[in-house]
Amino acid sequence: MLKIEIAEEIGFCFGVDRAVKIVESLLYKGTKVYVTGELIHNADEMKRLTELGLCSIDINDEKWPDLSTATVVIRAHGIPIEVFERLKDEAQNVIDATCPVVITLSDSIKSAEENGFEIFLYGHEKHDEVQHLKSVVKQVKVVESYEEIKNVSKKIALFSQTTMDIDGFSKISGKLGEEVSKLSTLLIKNSICHVTLQREREVKRLAKSDDLCLIVGGKNSSNTKKLFDIAKKLNTRTYLVLDSTEINEKWFDSVQSVGICSGTSTPQRIINDIVERLRTFKI
Ligand code: SF4
Predict the structure, then answer these.
(1) CATH top-level class of 101-193
(2) pTM score of the predicted model
(3) Fold of 3-11+195-279
(4) Among 3, 136, 190, 264, which is disulfide-ready with 257 (CB 3.0 to 4.6 Å)?
(5) 163 CB near ligand 1 (under 6 Å)
(6) Separation of CA 104 and ligand 1 centre (Å)
(7) Is the C-beta atom of 224 inside 6 A of ligand 1?
(8) CA-closest residue to ligand 1 atom 2
(9) Nearest residue to 75 via CA among 221, 211, 191
């Protein structure tokens, strides 16, 4: 019988769970609810919420639909503050579901800037959270490696997007400590969210201990992709699936054990479906 191991930390993280519950409760009350772009990066969950009545607007559109009787919910990783201001002008209500972890990071970056630090952020330029942080402190320089940090000033601070990998962050902060600290005042703040850190630890454990590893989540979810990349390096039999229908039974030839981990936007019901499907395999 196939041994199924599930990561200790799985399903929605608390930030995503909070945002989804806010939207759900408004929809159940009959409120017209909009989000900017996707509330979360999971096609299955977005389909469910859309069927309940959730609508979406594109922040880049010059003209939005009439929002004067609508409530707009801000997603967990935030939006640029100028968009937030425009929404407050156009919508009846704006509810900010930005995760408290992201708000704490944005406050820390603001305070570092006020204290004269040049700010570097380990992150992906196009990620929603980075767009939000760059709108709070315009001078933030987004980097993905130490080599991108050049011509530093006398006081520099390094932060991380909340969903980045700890190995990449440690590499940059280690190098900065060796090369730059003699010349500058250096502030290093590991601002990676503890939920994603724990998932990284779990995925490493499962990828090493199980024959096959399943990462469950949206293909456009940055933290899901990160977990997949980490696991794939440790276990070549690693697969990224959105839901149980994407699992191919042939992957399980001569497999005795499977480890399951998920991105932070993956609902628990999808994990349950996957476990149910795996239990039907004749192994
Ligand atoms: S991953 Fe962390 S920072 Fe991002 S929404 Fe979830 S709890 Fe908040």
Answers:
(1) alpha beta
(2) 0.91
(3) Cobalt-precorrin-4 Transmethylase; domain 1 (3.40.1010)
(4) 3
(5) yes
(6) 11
(7) no
(8) 193
(9) 221
Residue among 9, 17, 101 to mutate when testing ligand 1 (max atoms within 8 A of CB): 101
- For the domain covering 14-98, report its CATH number: 3.40.50.11270
Cα atoms in the Cβ-side hemisphere of radius 13 Å centred on 28: 6
Query: What value does the mean pLDDT of the chain take?
Result: 94
Which residue's alpha carbon is at the smallest distance from atom 5 of ligand 1?
15
Q: Is the CB of 71 under 6 A from ligand 1?
A: no
Closest CA to 142 of 155, 162, 158: 158
Annotated domain spans of the chain = 3-11+195-279, 14-98, 101-193
- Between the CA of 163 and the centroid of ligand 1 the distance, in Å, is 7
For residue range 139-172, list pLDDT tens digits in order. Answer: 999 999 999 998 778 899 999 999 999 999 999 9
Strand (E) or helix (H) holding 6 = strand 3-6
Ligand 1 centroid, distance to 223 Cα (angstroms): 10
Positions annotated as catalytic residues are 129
Q: Is 109 helix (H, G, I), strand (E, B) or coil?
A: helix
Per the DSSP assignment, residues forming a β-bridge with 150 are: none
